[in-house]
Specification:
It is a single chain. By secondary structure, the chain is an all-alpha fold. It has a domain of 127 residues: AhpD-like (Up-down Bundle), CATH 1.20.1290.10. The longest helix has 23 residues. The radius of gyration is 18 Å and the shape is elongated. The chain starts with 14 loop residues before the first helix and ends with a helix.
Length: 191
């Protein structure tokens, strides 16, 4: 765990943010640093905006597992350890197939991915890495996905960049949420 450029705010201002900290501790076992380093220093509307961005995923028609894979791919390409950790934590909570998550770097050749998923991941990869998409990549994703689905993929890449740039800009690394979950589970199981 690296040091952030700004120290986490331990005692947030305002009753609502204190409640958000409390709920975060219950959900994650700690207050995630994007909240304690970034959102705690801004007007509450910014933290609420991040929450709304996150809730919008519920309105997407793409399969939830593909949504997670696209977000994880963008996080990995941007080397946002915080986003990768949080994404992995949520994937575990959703009981996602961990083998697919672990094989994400090899999605192009792994038999765990469909051609439609590969097309979506190629599109997200190219958009993230090149900040544009070639006509060939667009044609390939269009063969497998509707216009709405393509727009959803673009949304996922763009909104994931919001998270990653926030974390990278403030040197917010992994909170080790998956390790916290393992430690809590071991405690519950009496290990």
């Amino acid at each position: 765990m690296s040091d952030t450029f700004l120290a986490p705010v331990k005692n947030p201002p305002g009753l609502i943010l204190k409640l958000v900290y409390y709920l975060s501790r219950r959900q994650f076992g700690k207050v995630p640093r994007p909240l304690s380093v970034h959102a705690s220093r801004l007007p509450l509307a910014f933290a609420m905006f991040y929450g709304k961005v996150s809730k919008l995923d519920e309105k997407l028609h793409l399969p939830p597992e593909l949504i997670t894979l696209i977000r994880q791919r963008v996080s990995g390409l941007n080397v946002c350890l915080c986003c990768m950790d949080i994404g992995h934590w949520f994937a575990i909570q959703k009981s996602m197939n961990q083998a697919r998550l672990d094989a994400l770097d090899d999605y192009a050749t792994s038999p765990l991915f469909t051609e439609a998923e590969r097309a979506a991941l190629d599109y997200a990869t190219e958009l993230t890495a090149q900040k544009k998409v070639s006509p060939d990549t667009f044609d390939r994703v269009a063969r497998h996905h509707s216009e709405r689905a393509i727009c959803e993929i673009v949304w996922l890449v763009a909104s994931q960049h919001l998270y990653t740039m926030t974390n990278l800009g403030l040197n917010i690394g992994s909170d080790m949420l998956c390790d916290i979950r393992r430690n809590r589970r071991a405690t519950w199981l009496g290990r």
